Amino acid sequence: ARQQHIRNFSIVAHIDHGKSTIADRILEATHSVTEREMQNQLLDTMDLERERGITIKMNAVEVHYKAEDGETYIFHLVDTPGHVDFSYEVSRALAAADGAILVVDAAQGVEAQTLANVYLALENDLEILPLINKIDLPAADPEKVRQEIEDVIGLDASSAVLASAKMGIGIPELLEQIVQKFPAPEGDLEAPLQALIFDSSYDAYKGVILTIRVKNGIVKPGDKVRFMHSGAEYEVTEVGVHSPYSVKRDYLMAGDVGYLAASIKNIRDARPGDTITMVNKPATEPLAGYKPMTPMVYSGLYPTDNAKYNDLRDALEKLQLNDASLEFTPETSQALGFGFRTGFLGLLHMDVIQERLEREFDMDLITTAPSVTYHAFTTDGQMVEVENPSELPDVGAIKSIEEPYVHAQIMVPKEYVGAVMELAQRKRGEFDTMDYLDDHRVYVKYYMPLSEIIFDFFDKLKSSTRGYASLDYELAGYRQSDLMKIDILLNGEKVDALSFIVHRDFAQERGRLITAKLKEIIPRRNFEIPVQAAIGSKIISRSTIKAYRKDVTSKIHTGDPDRRAKLLDKQKRGKARMKSVGTVDVPQEAFMAVLKTG
Ligand code: GTP
């Protein structure tokens, strides 16, 4: 009977349409937090999320709602990120839910990731409840958006909730619709335990803490459980729910979403996607897990202090627990020493991981420019997967190179279609289709090299459409391209960590831009430093960092002690993100310079 009163659901939307604010309002309306505890974007617990105003991690909470029918319902709500880089989090959250609230901005309408997330929800057989948010905005046009949801998505929006999360409008109706429209979880209390792990985190005292959705059976402290994929066995020490702070429970049963701890020390024993069952009474089959996520870009992560290599490995292992899409393997660079080649879902993801390593684990890092994975076919018939440009075989040994392509879907008002097409063409895009969604919006699709889209395509797309275009993409296989590697030499020495791969058409220009850029970034020494770009043994461009003449430390001889301290501090911090390569000091910025030459 308790099961009949449970509703498991998620909230999905295009970025910034207001998911997190809706979640806040639900917590408030169900009195799950006191007014004093209430702060905006309560579920965005990471400092980084608050500062950037984005959701990076999903979060699962339990709240209690007294409905108009007089009954009290238990809601398990999973907030999810909206940015394309974090779609992995969305798909995992959806596997734990039975319904999804689809939030659409009343002024922006349906956007590329609105569609992408709806498809994910439909794949997971979720009931979808449309909500049109931000009706308080002067530019809001809820009726038009309602029509758009019906036309573009094909979803019945006649009873869509009209809401303003900001003003608290529409929230009571939303809560009632959740009770009426979303199904209660199915699942057999008597059946052998099957619980899906969909997230995890690490606690120094309790070990690995798993977020689970129990599909069948019951689990309680003292139970001996087995992880069906890893085969590991543990005794459960604690179960509970987040509401939103951790609350211990006597048991979790079929239909519940909550956490489980079992003094798990080895993070490999309990990966998201695995199924937990009982040792004594095991289920015959694990639940369907998740598609493993392939990283889109790779970059090298190196501690500025080589002695911190093991600390970096520990930190990456702990982060991986909290972010199953993170991948890393050891690599060595002549210039940078020992580090890790690390895979990310996109540049925002890379940024976030780097910042979390620095803040949560106190690491000082050098990150090399991100690169996609190339396939190099050698003359002796081998295929080499190249995640690190410096590992591309010699020109003479290569027969051909393939690079990953994506299918890019862009939604844009018709007056900007020209600008979008011009940009896509410039980024080596191949036109696929163009459809009118209604009389003013167009859905344009292109095949494009992933390397072009991942770097600054999104920013350029936004700036050339005054922010109106939205983008979604998925991998679409490998294609042969006329690619070559550019090496960078500092003071005559090749710096492997600065090598990059470009299309022949852009090689000359990129070589020129990068040598000019490095000249600005690399600090002067008391001798001249030549900066060269080379293809094989051929130098294609060169700049020179002049020797300095005057004493640069004289700047510090300033009377104001405050200013002096600040300057020193700035220099100290600058130094931390610097690596000596031979006789040259190379700052972090130099490794990213190649991104700024696209
Ligand atoms: P991500 O977590 O980054 O995916 O974004 P989100 O979809 O969770 O959006 P969020 O709740 O962070 O809201 C985005 C912005 O819209 C914030 O500045 C909110 O204050 C604002 N916002 C949310 N709801 C409303 C609303 O009903 N009206 C108005 N005017 N602004 C709103």
UniProtKB/TrEMBL annotation:
GO terms for cellular component: plasma membrane
Protein name stated in the entry: Elongation factor 4
UniProt source species: Weissella soli
SUPFAM superfamilies recorded: EF-G C-terminal domain-like, P-loop containing nucleoside triphosphate hydrolases
CDD domains found in the cross-reference section: EF4_II (cd03699), EF4_III (cd16260), LepA (cd01890), lepA_C (cd03709)
Protein location: Cell membrane
InterPro entries: EF-4 (IPR006297), EFG_III/V (IPR035647), EFG_V-like (IPR000640), EFTu-like_2 (IPR004161), G_TR_CS (IPR031157), LepA_C_sf (IPR038363), LepA_CTD (IPR013842), LepA_IV (IPR035654)
The protein's role, per its UniProt record: Required for accurate and efficient protein synthesis under certain stress conditions. May act as a fidelity factor of the translation reaction, by catalyzing a one-codon backward translocation of tRNAs on improperly translocated ribosomes. Back-translocation proceeds from a post-translocation (POST) complex to a pre-translocation (PRE) complex, thus giving elongation factor G a second chance to translocate the tRNAs correctly. Binds to ribosomes in a GTP-dependent manner.
GO BP terms, alphabetized: positive regulation of translation
